[in-house]
Write a structure and sequence with these properties.
Elements (H helix, E strand, L loop, with lengths): L4 E9 L2 E9 L6 E7 L2 E5 L4 H11 L7 E6 L5 H7 L4 E8 L2 H8 L6 H6 L3 E5 L2 H4 L15 E6 L19 H8 L2 E11 L5 H10 L2 E11 L4 E11 L6
Helix pairs in contact: 1-2, 6-7
Amino acid sequence: MGARFEEIDWRQTAKGAISLRRRRDPASGIEVYEVKLDDDFLMSSQFTAGEIALARLGLEPLPDTDLDVIVGGLGLGYTAHTVLEDSRVRSLTVVEALDEVIGWHQRHLVPLGANLTSDPRCRLLRADFFSLTADPHGFDPSIQGRRTHAIIVDIDHSPRHVLDPAHAPFYEPDGLRELTGRLHPGGVFALWSNDPPDEHFNAVLAQVFHESQARVVEFHSPLQERTVTNTVYVARTQPAQA
């Protein structure tokens, strides 16, 4: 890429103006992909440690093979790509609200687009994740029993800092109880957050799930020249009785 900065795509959506940008980092020389919604930075390919850790920590407690996984939020694809790197995964459904984001991957405008769209285990579903949690048909009718082994979510900035006020009820006990009905016994719910561990949300998880924890993920920020953190919440339903 010759230019220091390029706006690859810009679209007006029901959620605001979304743009995909590419720039060359002056220090490293690498190409950095960024997504903005209006004036809000949503994600960057320069900071993927949290998204990768989300997938790994979400799958870690599951001993089974032939796993069916749901990812809420496609973004630049790093969480979904990490899920597919796990050989136990049989199917992955990525639920994304914006056609434009799915289109970036289908048109190979983002680095991982070709990997995701060419993997036969991966399905990109244009839908509202939060609406599907309450849908009696589940996230993917092709999954036997309409229950899945892991639901991994990276949509909002945190349980308190949501992109849309309509998302807020999901992070309360009634919302998460609906989600548990989509999981197998011993199934995992994992959530990425840009904020430090939240005592209120930890209490909500403890109220709804059999076990839960907040894991802090540290990584170096070249922009700030310091170590920064994300939080990954991992919660598990009651395992089946032997």
